[in-house]
Amino acid sequence: MTATTTAAAAIARTYRDYDRPLWQRVLLTREMAIVALVVVVAVVAAATVRGFGQPITVTYLLLDVMPILLIALPMTLIMITGEIDLSVASIVGLSSVLTGVLTAGGLPFELAAVVALVAGAVCGAVNGFLVTVVGLPSLAVTIGTLALFRGLAVGLLGTTAITDFPDFWTDLAKARVGGSNVPVVLFVFLVLLVVFIVLLHFTPFGRGIYAIGLSKAAARFSGVHVERTKFVLFVLAGLISALAGIFYTLRFGSARGDNATGLELQVIAAVVLGGVSVFGGRGAIHGVIAGVLLIGVLSSALRLANVTSDVINIITGALLVLSVVTSSFLVWLRKRRKAPGGTPRVEASTAG
Question: Does some domain include residue 29?
Answer without folding.
Answer: yes
